[in-house]
Input
Amino acid sequence: MDSEISQLLRSLPRTKASDAFTRNVMRKIDLPDSIRWWRYGLVPAALALTVAMLAGNHVLETREERHQMQILKVEQKRLSLELEQLKNITPMEPVLYVGSNGTTDYVVDLGEGNGSQAIVPASYSTNTF
Output
């Protein structure tokens, strides 16, 4: 197929470009430096501007990330201090969470009672009726 196309192209009559065409091509090749910079300087300038904008955006994002990290560090320190304070509180009497029926939570105090004031299960009590 390529050879067919080549044959067909070779069979076309040869023509010479007009003098005006040649003159226009040569004139565009020999553009003054100021115009050449204008045409060919736009792409590098646009590329440089894009890189500068991306770099500036990265700097802003980095600052924001540092700010967020400082906020998180302050919050972590505050929570650590609060946890230490909770650990240093005198321990409460031991309790056992039995469960809930949806409206009421049942908790049993396992602390040591002092004598007759200790909680005694109803089955062990003699004063039931």
Remarks:
- The chain has a mean pLDDT of 78.
- The first strand starts at residue 95 and ends at 100.
